[in-house]
Structure formats: structure tokens, C-alpha cells
């Protein structure tokens, strides 16, 4: 069974959404991608939607909406996007913080930089899961 990866942010409208989309595009052979936040927005960030469509031909408006942590399945791996979000107690076996700046309200160049950074991190995560470098046999972390 493929591990479930949850990309967590405060509003689940920008970075975590981009990570979910790119996780599905580049990592789906190895893991399942989900994104969620501790709060939601009525609409995901339309600059993020546009940039991901331009760079990767993925239309997040068709398949994504802002979700709360309770709205997604229990994750094996939790990736925090870097918003110093204190995750409510979510059972998981592994966690890391990618420390990405929020590009909201900034230039397209910032969005492209973040998208490319997320793409690299997704590919690295896929490789590490593939090579069993992430121990998912550990006890659940509470």
C-alpha cells in the first residue's frame, strides 16, 4: 500500500495546494498526495492555479478545494510548508518542514520559484520513499 502524504499549511490555498498537485503529477507511483490546512479559504489562490497550469498543464480549479485537516485521510507522512503552523494532533509516522515562503501577493517570479522548489522537493521525497530512507515502520507519532 502506498503511503499517504499530507501537505499542511494554514489556509490550504497556495503552497500546500501546489504541493498536492505536483505530488500527484510526479510522485503518484510511490505515494498518495493530499493537502489541508488548519483554516480554509473560499477559493484557492488563483495565481498559484495559473502558474501551475502554465508550468505543468495541471488545472487545480478542476480538482482542488481548500480543505481542513479533518477532511483528508490519516497520513503516514506530514509535510509542513513552512508557515510555523502548529499541526493539531495528526497521527503520522514521519514529519518534515519544507520552510517555504508564502508567495501570496508577490510576483509571478516568486510563484515560479516556489513551484520549482516544490517540484524538486517532491522528486526528492519520492526518491527517499522509494529507497526506504524514510522509516514508515516506526510507531505512530502523537
TrEMBL record:
SMART domains: LMWPc. The keyword Transmembrane does not apply. This is Arsenate reductase ArsC. Keywords: Coiled coil. Residues 3-128 form the Phosphotyrosine protein phosphatase I domain. The keyword Coiled coil applies. InterPro entries: Ptyr_pPase. Pfam families: LMWPc (PF01451). Residues 108-135 form a coiled coil.
Amino acid at each position: 500500500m502506498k503511503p499517504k502524504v499530507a501537505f499542511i499549511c494554514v489556509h490550504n490555498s497556495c503552497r500546500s495546494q501546489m504541493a498536492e498537485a505536483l505530488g500527484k503529477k510526479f510522485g503518484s507511483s510511490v505515494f498518495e498526495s493530499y493537502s489541508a490546512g488548519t483554516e480554509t479559504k473560499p477559493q484557492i489562490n488563483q495565481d498559484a492555479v495559473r502558474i501551475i497550469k502554465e508550468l505543468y498543464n495541471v488545472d487545480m480549479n478542476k480538482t482542488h478545494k481548500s480543505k481542513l485537516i479533518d477532511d483528508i485521510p490519516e497520513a503516514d507522512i506530514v509535510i509542513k510548508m513552512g508557515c510555523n503552523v502548529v499541526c493539531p494532533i495528526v497521527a503520522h509516522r514521519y514529519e518534515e518542514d519544507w520552510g517555504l515562503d508564502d508567495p501570496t501577493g508577490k510576483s509571478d517570479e516568486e510563484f515560479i520559484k516556489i513551484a520549482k522548489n516544490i517540484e524538486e522537493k517532491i522528486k526528492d521525497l519520492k526518491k527517499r520513499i522509494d529507497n526506504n530512507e524514510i522509516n514508515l515502520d516506526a510507531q505512530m507519532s502523537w
